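Problem 3 from the worked examples.
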Amino acid sequence: MTYQKRLIEVDLPIKRISAHARREKSIRHGHISTLHIWWARRPLAACWAVICAALWPAPGQPDCPPAFIEAARMEMQKWTSHERLNFLSPESRLHFEALRQNLVNPVQLRPLLLDFIADFANWDNSTVKEFLDTSRAHYPSRA
């Protein structure tokens, strides 16, 4: 049995995730952990990003399952629609628009997944149905 490298082992958009985590830590309303300043605040942004990147195989690696590549390609293709592009950050939007028509190489899929993870780490996107559905669809199934 070969070891499948995960996305977190290949790359992670740490700078963007950290920016979301810093912003989330300063939010003082809407979450139970903000009741008292002494409570240890663990930003969910960083947790979501790390969980997704740790569960998803790394496209472009020789042992990445073809089923995951195809599912990820279909999900990332959905994010090129005009309705979903509005949820993405300007930086991510540029990448998705550039690869709208030509998403065939698994190596091209990796930056889109990383952009998705960075945008999903945004506190404002924590309840957006499209982000939640996509993150669930990418969960690798065990056969």
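Problem 4, a separate protein:
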Amino acid sequence: MTLLALGINHNTAPLSIREKLSFSEDMLRPALHELRNLSEVREAAILSTCNRTELYCGIHSQEINGIVDWIAQSRNLSLEEFKPYLYTHLESRFIRHIFRVACGLDSLILGEPQILGQMKSAYQAAVDAGTLGKQLGQLFRSSFSTAKKVRTDTAIGSSPVSVAFAAVRLAQQIFDKLSEQTALLVGAGETIELTARHLHQQSIGRLIIANRTLNKAHELAGRFNGFAIVLSDIPEHLAEADIVVSSTASPLPILGKGRVESAIKQRKHKPMLMIDLAVPRDIEPEVEQLRDVYLYTVDDLKNTIEENIKSRLEAAEKAEEIIDRQVEQFLAWLRGEDAVTTIQTLRAQAEMTRDETLNMALAALRSGKNPEQVMNTLARRLTNKLMHDPTTQLRQAGRDERRDILDAARELFNLKSNDNK
């Protein structure tokens, strides 16, 4: 069996193509069954995120046209629409690839941890669908242990490298328990969405999403168990917020000093963290003058992020060394599996020969033949049958001057040399 990864990601395909090739959670189970039922596929899993769609397969040969055709059919696309963006990885390249994906080394944000959870979900989906076999299953589990080792032995994920992640990490440093805090997020773009996701993952106590358009606020709030309001409602809810993160395209500030000062008084001077990720600013700079308000701008976070990116790049080099070792270990396991299969086939063939010969001997005994003669015949017949194929092949190897086969036979059967005669 050949291990194959076939897919697209943020490096090879634009968002418009990635959207067309994505698989929702509801689509995953039937898609896995369809993929597994292809004649060339023995094992199958699908990893589908906003940044990548990858099919992981164990196939009979290295022919992938049938799988590519299935993608076109299942996603109702022509080959010309997506095939130029596809990449394939076979065997050791696939093993290295899936390890790098699990460790966040192939992610849009280097070292991001979310991909590992997404891979575990893909693994479980394939297990539940019954499309995961021994080799792919072990490969997934090895990728998880590799990612854990990289996280433990390097600093690949210890430093935030997006402003959203940095904002949440800052909030964690200021507040002991985010589960007891309320966050107000102003805007509904990509940065606010990412901030909402990070806060949700950190079990934020309460989440309020404020946006110019209520429908967009509702859509985002619904995904993270939040509460949606329009921008004009902010004064009514500002005092509830322990954390405020704002990122809109407004040309003028949304939150002024007076409004924030009023909210602080309502809070009885309970501290408030305000993070302005907008350019131009959403929060008036004068807000920084207020007591009990901690105001940070995008520039404050970017300086930290640049240092953190450098730190992650250094950690990534160490991670690649760990992956090199883990790839070799998995390849060794695969080679061992090949030996197991050969041993199982050899043993099954020997047991079949044994049963046939034994049945003949038992029949002879039942017919009244001499037991000693029957046993001698059994031993001779069994020896001849077991030795027939190896002897034939060794004679042919001698005729073909295949010294390598003869030497292998001596090593395999632990034969002593007769060259000293």
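Solution to problem 4. Residues 345-411 form one domain. The mean pLDDT is 90.
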